[in-house]
Amino acid sequence: MNQTVMFSRAVIVASMLVMPVAAWASARSDAKEQVEFGIKVAQTGLWREAQYRWERAVELDPTYAEAWNNLAIAYEHTGKFDDARKAYETALKLDPKNTLIRQNYDLFKEINDRTQKRRGGR
Amino acid sequence: MTGPRNAAAVASLVLLCTAIGCTNFYEVPIETPIQPKMDVTPFTRILVAGFISGGSDDVDGNLETVRLLRSQLRSKSTLRVIEAEVLPLVDIAREQGKEPAGPSSSSVPTGGGPGQTPADPPPSTPPVPQQPPAGEPTPQQPSTPPATGQVAPVPGLESTDGKIRNEKDLERYQSIFENVAFWKKLGEQHQNPLIVTGTVLFTNTQSSGFVNQNREIIDPLGRRVVQPYRVYMERKGFIIEPRFVFIDGRTGAVLFSDRFHEEVLYPASQQTPALSSYFELMDRLIPSFLGSLSTQRIRGTRVLLK
Fold first, then answer.
1. DSSP B162
2. B57-114: per-residue pLDDT in tens?
3. H-state helical runs in B20-107
4. pLDDT tens digits for B203-251?
5. Bridge partners for B247 per DSSP
6. Which of A10, A51, A97, B135 is the most exposed place for a label (fewest CB within 10 A)?
7. How close A27 comes to chain B (CA, Å)?
8. What single-letter DSSP state applies at residue B126?
9. What is the dihedral of CA B144, B147, B148, B153, to 10 degrees?
10. How many beta carbons lie within 10 A of that of residue A109, not counting itself?
C-alpha cells in the first residue's frame, strides 16, 4: 500500500516538473511553425501576413529571439521604426551573441538615425 | 588558387554557422520607407515656379533647375506637375525693388498657363495700398494679405550691376519669398498648388594642395599592391548652393525651406563642361529634395532567422 502511494506521489512530482518543459517545447514548436510560415510569405513579398505570423510567434513564445528579429524587420519594412527598435532590442536581449541580429540592428539604426537627423534639421 | 578560396569560404560559413548556433537564415531585400519632411496631403498639384539664380554664366540656374525638378517630380512624386512658363524671378524681384507704389509691373506675370507667354498682358490689378511714411516699418499681415500681389520694394536691389555673384548678392533677394501676396496671387492663377521656388548659386571654384591618391606597384615578391601617396595638385570645379522654398499656394506662406551645399573638383587639366557638373551636383541633391515631398524608400537587405 505504502509503495503504491509512494509511486503515485513520485509520478505527480515528476509530471509537475516535466509539464512546464513540455508546455514550453510545445509553445516553441507552435511559434516555430508561425516563424517558418512568416519567412515563406515574406519571401514572396507578403510582409503584412509575415508580420502577423511573427506577432503570433512572439505571443506564443516571448523568449524566441529569432521571431523578434523577424518581427523587427517586418516593422522596419512598414516604416514602424519605434516598434522595430523595440523588437530588435528584445531580440538582442534574448540572444546578445547573435551576430546576424546585431548586423540587422546596426543597419536599421543607420537608417533610423539618418531619418531622425532629417527631422531634427527642419 | 580557387581551391584555397573555396576552402576559406566554406570555413567562414562553418564559423558563421557555429557562431549563430546553426540557425537557418534567409537574406531578404527590404525597402525601408522614409517619411517626407513636410505634409503635402492638402495638395494635388505642384508648381516649380522659378529660382533666383546666380554665379557662373555658363549655366542658366533658373531654367535648368526648374526643368530638372519638374522632370524628377513627374516621375517620382504623386503630385501633378504644372507645366507653366518659368518665372524670371530675378527680374520680378528687381522690378518689385525698383517700383514705387503703383499698379503694375510687380504683379504676378500671367505666363503661367500652357500657351501663355510672358508677353501676355498683365491682369488688371487694383491700386496698391499707400505705403507708410519713410522710416516707418511696413506692417506685415500674413493672415490678411493685400489682394493685389503688390510688394514692398526690396532694399538695395537698385544698386546691383545686374549680376548675382555670391551669397551676399543673393541675400538681397530673399524678401521675395516672404511676399505672401505675390505667392498667393500666383497660387490663385494655378488653382492653389504647392509652389516650389528658392535660390540657386552655381559658382566656379579652384583649389591647390596635397591630395591622397593610390597607385599600384609590384612589391619585392612580385605581387601587385596598392600604395597610397600624396601629390600636389591644382584643381578646379564647381560649387552648388541651392535653397528650396516650399510655399502654400492657398495662403502664399512659406511652409518649409531647405539649404544644400555640394561641390566637385577635377584636376586642372580636365575640361569639364559647367552644365555636366551642374547635373552631377544636382544628382546628389535630388533624393533629399524629393524626400521633402514624398516618401522615399531605402533599399537594403536583412537576414530573417528560423
1. S
2. 899 999 999 999 999 999 988 899 999 999 999 999 888 876 544 434 345 655 444 3
3. 61-76, 89-98
4. 999 888 888 888 888 888 888 888 899 989 889 999 999 999 999 999 9
5. B195, B254
6. B135
7. 15
8. P
9. 10
10. 13
Residue type, B83: E
Cβ separation of A39 and B302 shorter than 8 Å? no
**Residue B224 exposed, middle or buried by CB count within 10 Å (0-12, 13-18, 19+):** exposed
CB atoms within 10 A of CB B115: 7
Candidates B12, B32, B244, B257, partner chain A, best to mutate (most A CBs within 10 A): B32
Give the mean model confidence (pLDDT) for residues B13-19.
51
The verdict on pTM exceeding 0.90 is no
Look at the alpha carbons of B82, B89, B53, B244 in this order and tell me if their dihedral is positive or negative. Answer: negative
**DSSP state at residue B174:** G
**CA gap B286, B43 in Å, rounded:** 20
State mean pLDDT over A89-109: 96
Dihedral angle computed from the Cα positions of residues B175, B176, B178 and B179, in that order, rounded to the nearest 10 degrees = 130
Contact yes or no for A118 and B34 at CB 8 A = yes
Q: At B73, phi and psi to the nearest 5?
A: -65, -35
Q: Does A98 touch chain B (CB under 8 A)?
A: yes
Q: Would you give the distance in Å from CA B187 to the centre of its chain?
A: 20
Which residue matches cell numbers 488688371? B124
Is A107 part of the contact surface with chain B (CB cutoff 8 Å)? yes
Say what the ipTM of the complex is: 0.81
* Distance (Å) of CA B70 to CA A72, A117, B35, B153, B259: 37, 27, 21, 30, 19
In chain B, where does DSSP find H-type helix? 2-19, 61-76, 89-98, 167-171, 180-189, 274-293
Rounded to an integer, what distance in angstroms lies between the CA atom of residue A56 and that of residue A103?
Answer: 24
Q: Which contiguous run of DSSP H or E holds residue B211?
A: strand B194-218
- The C-alpha cell 530675378 sits at B90
Answer for the pair A101, A91: CB distance below 8 angstroms, yes or no: yes
Statement: residue B25 has pLDDT above 50: yes
Taking residue B175's Cβ as centre, other Cβ atoms within 10 Å add up to 18
**pLDDT(B9) > 70:** no
Q: What pLDDT score does B119 carry?
A: 34
Cβ contacts of residue B87 below 8 Å, gap of 6+?
B49, B50, B109, B111, B186, B197
pLDDT for position B24:
83
* Cell numbers at B1, concatenated: 588558387
